[in-house]
């Protein structure tokens, strides 16, 4: 067989999918499995989205569309950005992509040459590492342990930017930790970024509508408007509107960088389909009751999960304020046994938890933090309490 390109060999299969697949297999064998593994929102968009799609079908031209995105979608996204504190952008500053993952992949292609340095905090969303490795970038991951609430400090950022990396990738609210940076924290990081003009900044803020406790969503551009010429904001319909399979993402940023992504779009996807555009416009401009209600529901579920985390002696869990993840440090359990089965690390722990209790979580090493595991609490509501009870029992049974 002819050889494959080296770049595909550098990307590893997603650890999240490995757990999800094992959970699926056990379920198929008849086991009672509760999955806290995959980060899907588990709700559907409002009926107006489906109605818009039905109408679009009646008028579908079936033709190729714009590489940048349908003007109606671009305008809807520009309007959607206003309450996030991102104003003054025009159609030239935005582009539609096939989900935020494709947006980030495009940016890696557009901004990073082989060997260029990319910096991001750890814990990180798994694809950051894989995408960086596919394009051959040099990764500098900045450790942000639970002792600092998994958050990057201005001093860490300042030190990391001394080497003039090409790209700093930031994620707020965070997957996997659920942490949200306060306004003061964003301002302090923005002050550091302002001192380092050689570095592009990408903010992956796809959970921006899922922020709890009234702390609000904040971003670097809002804090320091002069950063606008090198900050690129990524967003998506997936989590906010319960539309992960519809594959719609966005980027907003300086004209040249966005134009580069349009060029990549023109060579890779051409356009987002017409009926998907209709769904996107309806989601962005229609009633916002579904995302608003889901945010309140996730906040209540966060409380429910945290009550259990706080009841487990030895477990350390910074309190998340957004998204739908909790990321407890479970390292106190390493070296212990569960009914004679020894647990050395996060992978052993997640395996034993799945085998013994039928609860699927993702090992923290998938996100660069092997002391932790990730709980995604978007499972159907009736499963949450029993799943958490099994989780608590598992830790109580360690010896
Ligand atoms: N960024 C983060 C932090 C995510 O959690 C995800 C999805 N899990 C993505 C990007 C990709 O989202 P999309 O479905 O829009 O591709």
The hetero compounds bound to this protein are: 4'-deoxy-4'-aminopyridoxal-5'-phosphate
Share of residues in strands: 5-15%
CATH superfamily of the largest domain: Type I PLP-dependent aspartate aminotransferase-like (Major domain)
Largest sheet: 7 strands, mixed
CATH architecture of the largest domain: 3-Layer(aba) Sandwich
Q: What general outline do the C-alpha atoms trace?
A: globular
Low-pLDDT stretches are none
H-E order:
HHEHHEHEHEHEHEHEEHHHEEEHEEEH
Helix content: 40-55%
What is the number of helices?
A: 14
Our measurement of the CA-to-CA distance between the termini, rounded to an integer number of angstroms, reads: 51 Å
The chain-level mean pLDDT equals: 96
The top level CATH class name of the largest domain: Alpha Beta
The value of Rg in angstroms is 21 Å
Return the domain count: 2
- With strands numbered from the N-terminus, the spatial order across the biggest sheet is 2-8-7-6-5-3-4
What class would the helix/strand composition place it in? alpha/beta
DSSP strand count: 14
The third-level CATH topology of the largest domain is Aspartate Aminotransferase, domain 2
InterPro entries: Aminotransferase_I/II_large, AspAT/PAT-like, NHTrfase_class1_PyrdxlP-BS, PyrdxlP-dep_Trfase, PyrdxlP-dep_Trfase_major, PyrdxlP-dep_Trfase_small
Cofactor: pyridoxal 5'-phosphate
Family: Belongs to the class-I pyridoxal-phosphate-dependent aminotransferase family.
Enzyme class: transferase
């Amino acid at each position: 067989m002819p050889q494959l390109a080296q770049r595909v060999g550098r990307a590893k299969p997603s650890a999240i999918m490995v757990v999800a697949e094992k959970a699926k297999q056990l379920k198929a064998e008849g086991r009672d499995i509760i999955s806290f593994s995959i980060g899907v929102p588990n709700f559907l968009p409002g009926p107006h989205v489906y109605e818009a799609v039905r109408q679009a079908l009646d008028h579908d031209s079936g033709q190729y569309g714009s590489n940048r995105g349908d003007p109606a979608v671009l305008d809807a996204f520009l309007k959607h950005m206003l309450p996030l504190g991102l104003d003054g952008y025009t159609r030239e500053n935005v582009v539609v992509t096939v989900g935020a993952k494709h947006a980030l992949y495009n940016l890696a292609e557009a901004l990073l040459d082989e060997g260029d340095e990319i910096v991001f905090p750890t814990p990180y969303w798994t694809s950051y590492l894989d995408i960086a490795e596919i394009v051959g970038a040099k990764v500098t991951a900045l450790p942000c342990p639970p002792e600092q609430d998994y958050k990057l400090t201005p001093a860490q950022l300042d030190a990391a930017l001394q080497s003039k990396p090409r790209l700093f990738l930031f994620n707020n609210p965070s997957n996997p930790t659920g942490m949200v940076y306060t306004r003061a924290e964003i301002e302090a990081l923005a002050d550091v970024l302002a001192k380092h003009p050689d570095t592009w900044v990408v903010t992956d803020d796809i959970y921006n509508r899922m922020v709890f406790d009234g702390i609000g969503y904040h971003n670097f551009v809002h804090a320091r408007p002069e950063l606008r010429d090198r900050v690129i904001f990524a967003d998506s319909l997936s989590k906010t509107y319960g539309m992960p399979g519809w594959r719609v993402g966005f980027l907003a940023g300086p004209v040249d960088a966005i134009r580069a992504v349009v060029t990549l779009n023109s060579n890779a996807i051409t356009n987002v389909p017409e009926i998907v555009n209709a769904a996107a416009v309806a989601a962005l401009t229609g009633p916002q009751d579904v995302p608003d209600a889901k945010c309140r529901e996730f906040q209540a579920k966060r409380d429910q999960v945290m009550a259990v985390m706080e009841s487990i002696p030895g477990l350390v869990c910074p309190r998340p304020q957004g998204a739908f993840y909790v990321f407890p440090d479970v390292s106190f359990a390493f070296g212990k046994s569960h009914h004679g089965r020894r647990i050395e690390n996060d992978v052993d722990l997640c395996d034993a938890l799945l085998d013994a209790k039928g609860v699927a979580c993702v090992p923290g090493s998938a996100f660069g933090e092997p002391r932790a595991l990730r709980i995604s609490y978007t499972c159907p509501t009736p499963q949450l309490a029993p799943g958490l009870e099994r989780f608590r029992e598992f830790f109580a049974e360690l010896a």
